[in-house]
Amino acid sequence: MFKLTINSLPGYAEGAQVVRVEETQGQIDEISGVVFTQIKQVRAVTQLEMSLLVPRTKDLKPAIVYFPGGGFISAAHEKFIDLRMPLAKAGFVVAAAQYRTVPNKYPALVEDGKAAIRYLRKHADEYGIDPARIGVLGDSAGGYVSQMMGMTNGEKSFDKGQFLDKSSDVQAAVTMYGISNLLEIGDGFPDDIAKVHQSPAVTEALLVNGTAFGDFPGASIGSSIRLASARLSAIGRHSRMMGSDGSISTGSPTSPMSSTIL
Known about the structure:
By secondary structure, this protein is of the alpha/beta class. The protein folds into two domains: about 20-180, Rossmann fold, CATH 3.40.50.1820; about 180-260, no CATH class. The protein has eight helices and eight strands; from the N terminus they run βββαβααβαβααααββ. It has a six-stranded mixed sheet with strand order 1-2-4-3-5-6, sandwiched between helices. A two-stranded antiparallel sheet has the order 7-8. The protein is globular and about 60 Å long.
């Protein structure tokens, strides 16, 4: 019989700590269809929703915002209940949030992530949340959003919409197989897959450049390197990264370790 040990876990590195979540019994209230932001366009208003799992306790509780993966083309926020429910049973308020996807361009999804965080701080009393303890969690494309929340603490340029008197900073950011550099998604794959990621029609290119329309023929993600670096150089100069040893280093727009590139 195979015995699972810590050092047999996928991706384990020497010295890494494994987080264990201990569940507690108690009632969990599920609240769905909560509109946390409205984006007004010329002829339409887009409403984004979140679903909350709220432990019924009198204590102030830490909160986690979950951003779902979906290849930047979907944000099915009510999936992975088997991931979210144990966190709620452990005492966290868990908010699963939508965000705008392609054909909406960057930085829409970053703005939406921050809007979700501000909403929770605005309604902290209603849900029993400790506003000083809000973290984020995401998988794949949602992991990218989570990383961006952590890397852009203090960057007010991404705060758009409602509740701007509340901070969108987070105290923790967790990514599960998240995308750290949009320019390198196809790296290391066979040639036929890598070629797909050179296409102007691949989702990361659409996220950055938008769809072909009018006199714009579309553009690949690789053609965006110079534009992206110039557009976000200020963020790269001011963003900071915390290493596993607690050290702080400056994020670079071109570093695969840093999501501040896009």
